[in-house]
Design a protein that fits this description.
Elements: H1 2-23
């Protein structure tokens, strides 16, 4: 369960980073 939570957090972090890069010119 802890590992799953860590993976979900990492996935959310990566998704947010990618979204920020796409928004940036």
């Amino acid at each position: 369960v802890e590992t799953n939570s860590i993976l979900l957090i990492e996935n959310a972090w990566v998704a947010e980073k990618e979204a920020n890069l796409k928004i940036s010119p």
